Amino acid sequence: MSETGPWGYRDGRAPPPVVDVKPDNGPSPARQAFVEDKGQNPVWAVVSTLLLGGLIWLFSGSAIVAGSAIFGLFVHEYGHVLAMNRLGMGPARIYIIPFLGGLAKAQRNPKSEWDGVLVALAGPAFGLLAVLPVVGLWFVTRDPEWLMGAFFIAMINLVNLAPAPPLDGSKALGPVLARVDPMLEKVALIAIGALVVWWGITTGRYILAVFLGIALLGHLRAGAWRPADGPRLSWPQAGQSLALFIVTALACAAAALGVLLPLAEGSPTQALDVALRYIGVER
Length: 283
Hints:
The chain has 283 residues and is mainly alpha-helical.
């Protein structure tokens, strides 16, 4: 998730600079000192993780699913961290938000919209790797709960690709839509954001619905984030961004359905039914 996800800031907004004024030096100009974010308090990080894991355990009824989801969440956020550090935005930190998810926070803004797109997609793409060890544990134990844990991981990454503020999809597709027309981005993200909030309410995901509703209102007030001086997406980069988004979404969807096949006796149709029921859709 950019402010996610799946859920939090991924646009790399740095804290305001601290102005160090030396009055004894007369008229010398003030200088700005960079203040590095030290990250989440370790005790609060553990408490937040336990609260989030406990909520997932409560709703899923499985400690294995809850543990798998937390593992997948950290791998997802670490994907953002790797991209941020690689693109000169680090050292990035991971924060866990009680009952909601996590976020990766950079120290500096991305240098361009293209860098912002790469950071947004790095979480879901890298996060899929968490499916592999969980499926491996199913091969060893043959406990179907591990497959449900792997499914949950895949869905965390897929849901984060929804183009609704503040999820990763809005950061990945927003600049592409703005390249066509800035109003198209605004209308599309607001419409999809409202749809996702409605989905959260109608499927009983009230905490997520409230969180996304607040984020949507914040998006309306602040507008889409853009680097102050960095270049916008070129047309070739817009095409590449769209292609990367589609490939990542298809990979997440394929992983979600693939891990359900053993539970559905190899039937893609039954696997699809299970996946749709998870998101509140009945066929």
